[in-house]
């Protein structure tokens, strides 16, 4: 079930609160969230008590499931551009199959969600994350959390999972928000959002990277490398994004620096 109570800390004028309690929502709470968002469905596993919230003077962050799923809301026209499941061509012309618009994109892709909860900040393109600081293991970890925000099996046609990792050291904090979406026999995508703040500065750096690849194989394809070609590896190789993220081609990358 996770932690019984939220973890709080305060470092360099930053107030930090995280909770990792993977409690399944009641049906009543599911209906409340659906009404609040104006949608008719939610991911099968949505963890409302898993979150990271941070604030300092002039800036706030809210990494939570409900905040993220707001960014998955789309119009019916926008939903038509979503990746289609492997059976779409087989089903699309059948008269006994009806398509309903739920208010969310089918893969629960949070798209523009970054966790930033403060509007109107001064922002400029560019900036960089201090990789030397990230690799420095000599500093003690003051606050760490790794939480899943939501997950769904896409009607047994794939998987979508949104999670984050956060660590606060003596000189900086760093967030990795990752959404992994696999539509079986269609597409695999990883959307990474990285935030970096070096204490003593009045700015945070945002890096967004989207990696995507079309796939054709299914979960039953052999894992033997000789049994498949590079264009169609078995889906079981696409289960843990940490093991293959750097093999996917980057289709979008951008960096911004926010002042507060």
Characterization of this structure:
The longest helix is centred in the first third of the chain and has 11 residues, at 27-37. It is globular, with a radius of gyration of 20 Å. The protein contains five helices and twelve strands. Helix content is 12%, strand content 38%. Strands 3-7-8-9-10-11-12-6 form an eight-stranded antiparallel β-sheet. Residues 219-230 have low confidence and may be disordered. By secondary structure, the protein is mostly beta strands.
Q: How is the topology of this model organized?
A:
Blueprint: E1 7-11, E2 14-20, H1 27-37, E3 45-46, E4 50-56, E5 59-64, H2 65-70, H3 76-79, H4 88-91, E6 122-125, H5 131-135, E7 143-152, E8 158-168, E9 172-183, E10 187-198, E11 203-214, E12 250-259
Antiparallel strand pairs: 1-2, 2-4, 3-7, 4-5, 6-12, 7-8, 8-9, 9-10, 10-11, 11-12
Give the mean pLDDT.
90
Number of strands: 12
Distance between the termini: 36 Å
- SSE sequence, one letter per element: EEHEEEHHHEHEEEEEE
| Helical content class | 10-25%
Number of helices: 5
Write down the overall geometry. Answer: globular
Lateral strand order in the biggest sheet: 3-7-8-9-10-11-12-6
Q: Helix/strand-derived class?
A: mainly beta
Per DSSP, what share of the residues sits in E-state strands of 2 or more residues? 35-45%
Radius of gyration, whole Å: 20 Å
Summarize the biggest pleated sheet.
Answer: 8 strands, antiparallel
Uncertain runs are 219-230
Keywords:
eight-stranded antiparallel beta sheet, mainly beta, four-stranded antiparallel beta sheet, 260 residues
